[in-house]
Design goal:
By secondary structure, the protein is mainly β. The chain has 7 helices and 25 strands. A 14-stranded antiparallel β-barrel has the order 1-6-7-9-10-13-14-17-18-21-22-23-24-25. It has a two-stranded antiparallel ribbon with strand order 4-5. The radius of gyration is 27 Å and the shape is elongated.
Length: 538
Amino acid sequence: MKRLQVTVTALACAAALLAASGLLRPAHAALTDNLAVSVKAMSMGNAVTADPPGVDAIHFNPAGLSRLEGDVKQDNFFGASIRFKSRLDKPEGFDIGGWKDDPVAGTSSGKMRQKIYLPGIGPSKFSLPAAVAAGMGFSFNRKGSPWTFATAVYVPQGVGIVRPDANDPTRFDGQQVILQRLVYLSPSVAYKVSDTLSVGLAVPIAHQSFALNTDMRFPNKLLGIIGKLQDAWCGDGGNPLDALGFGLCGGGKEGRLRPFNKAGSMQFDMTAPVDPTFNLGVLWEPKDWFAAGLVYQSGTRSTLTGRYSFQAEPMLPRFVEGMYSSLLGPVVAAMLGFPTSIPAEQSGYATMKLPFPAHWQLGIKLKPMSRLQFNVDVNYTDWRKWDKLEIQFDRQVNLLQMARLFGQGDASRLVIPRGYKDPVHFGYGMEIGLTKGFKLRFGYEPRKTSVPQSAFDLIAPLPQLNVRSIGFGYEAPSGLKVDAAFSYAKGRYNIPHDTSCNLNCTNFFNLIYNPYAGLDVSGTTTLRYGGVSITQPF
């Protein structure tokens, strides 16, 4: 068998502005591991380490390349659709600093479309109901030689979502999110040590990209309290005494703090054009009915560079303007190191450390009958490296200067806690030979999430997903092989209020971004994807 496969007035401002930085958390976790690398692997629950799938062995176990004879070309075509459906509900006793009616409460997310990142260009201008991709690979072996060489183009990681509705209630946690890793060159070699043992090495060289576009709001209790204080102190026409105080009224009605209003928006577009890793594999095939395989895919501490842009709605700039128009406001601002203004837009260049986690996969193949085969793999990914993300800006960012009160002394650098975990999960595959050239395949992969409930968000809501797959393979007498597969997964999540401080916490001084503070958030994540692969000698 061959292949299977991120004073009170001063406190409020600082909390709100630092919260904006909490959005810089890319959307990926266990959802992205191995999903659409190989058509055969898809159909076998990705349990193919002991039965590496042709040229796709470059990723799953490069030692398996030694089973390929002659020169082989492989073309892969994939399509994928991701849907996040979220519901926002107000629990009993909901209160954010005196504000009790959140306009998004009782609503659900709207439609969703897919996008891809085009290297050298950026996020595609168009979006589609499903993302489409293609890849190809080549292997080279001289008859009788124990050496096999190969290279391939594939996508080991990819999430690209767009919420096109301008009023989608979930737009405050990512209106557009793209995290994509494209391997464009993967020099690989396998050596057949003996008739039963092979080893292999692959060096995938990837283009890593991250793009984020999101609206922002800050439903923080402190913000709400100050907004209520402004209304009481300023009334409808302002207060003449305010000029002798802290400037609560100086920004006019536009400068009154509202915890549920849109405060601004943010965009990031960052890449690492050359980001290499390596895959080491071992394949042991002592019997026709049994084989075992092991692969280690190294991680990398990727450094992405690119541009950032913050746009502020009038609320916060006018609030700061009012503060500086009073007698005591500038004194307090100077003591805390606040900027004299918040620009409507601030942009520049940034660098981000984005670890790509290492992955281990161990599997066995059992073939109790000539036309029946079972595969089982165990997977481990070191997502614990995502304990924090680091962003370095090219200048002091005015927004972050207001966070000095909370220990953020350097407004040109930001460290964001994440707290991911590294779960172990299994994959199962079965192949049935219906005729000499036609095989039917089934796969099941219960994927544990790497995102704990305390770090859950809607940028990419990733609950446990049970992936079910079906596929077939046909091999013609000429050596032409055609494989096809379809996979479906659905997971549910329920995040009660105050359980995730990336989503809905109401802590008085919580500085992590909580766009849905105090709300209960629930929903589903649905994934549909399929592919076709054509392999032939050349």
